[in-house]
Amino acid sequence: MKGVLLVNLGSPESPQPKDVKPYLDEFLMDKYVIDVPYLLRALLVRGIILRKRPEESAHAYQKIWWNEGSPLVVLSERMHKKVQPLVGVPVALSMRYGSMNIEKGLQELHDKGVDEVLLFPLYPQYAMASTLTILVKAEEIRKKKFPNMKITDVPAFYNKPDYIKNLADSIQKHLSGFDYDHLLFSYHGIPERHIRKTDITKSHCKIDGSCCNTPSPAHDFCYRHQCYETTRLVIEKLGLPEDKYSLTFQSRLAGDKWLEPYTDVEIDKMPEKGIKNLAVVTPAFVSDCLETLEEIAMRAKEDFEAKGGENFLAIPCLNDDDEWCATVSKWINDWAK
Length: 337
Known about the structure:
The chain is an alpha/beta fold. It has two domains: 2-156 and 321-336, Rossmann fold (3-Layer(aba) Sandwich), CATH 3.40.50.1400; 161-314, Rossmann fold. The protein is 46% helix and 14% strand. The chain has twelve helices and eight strands. It has helices at residues 17-28, 38-64, 71-83, 102-111, 128-145, 161-175, 192-197, 223-238, 263-269, 290-293, 295-306, 322-336, and strands at residues 2-10, 91-97, 116-121, 150-153, 182-188, 245-250, 277-281, 311-314. The strands form two sheets. The chain has a four-stranded parallel beta sheet, sandwiched between helices. The protein has a four-stranded parallel beta sheet with strand order 6-5-7-8, sandwiched between helices. The termini are close together.
């Protein structure tokens, strides 16, 4: 029997430091997130980052937390509830980190008689710290707990026509009535070394301004290329001129070379360039979360206005949009035939 496991990032149990700390520990100790040897990772995370970060992150979570719980979890659950009636197979929802873990999701499907699972990472673009860690964790659990279960994964859907249409339509809908000067595509940042590590050719990804535009098998796993390609396809759909949009990367950690240009740095420059009305979309996420609701919709807005910007629009993620849920359901049904 076939079944589907949707997997998103995850969330602490509450926006309090006591719950944020173990969540951050699990997240940051993942070798696919901070990809350094274990002892160095433990020293960095447990000896330095977790001394201050839980309090800071808890404060940020408190600013966006809903009565129903974590926005990312709530929105993922709403999407799940819309998708399930539209498909002919059982669908479970899990998170890579936190209590709603992948093992529980696979167990739920197993208990329903599922022995063939479509693993669906809810990330449009492929990255070590998102897609790969889900695939590895699911396979690890399968071997240990469900050896007779077969798992197939959904590849990155950054360029799928249905997804591009959903994203373009959502942007267009939210831009209606907003007289914007510029549309910014802000993607989650990753260290440049992650790009090179996922380069299956071991030579193509030089991050030199041309490699992402030069056809290569490396693009199947290149986060940077896929971000640029998503943007290109959406812009093509919207018919925007080159001077009307740009692409940046947000949420970097200090100490490493991360993908550029940086969202916060570029937004600070915009008002002096005459961009007074700014719209920001975050296509690395399909569900609104801390990075979209606090980092962009709150902090970036405050910074933009402090530098002289006048109007700022944070475009919501696809979340549980009916058309997006219909697309996900279509992909599932096509697989389940």
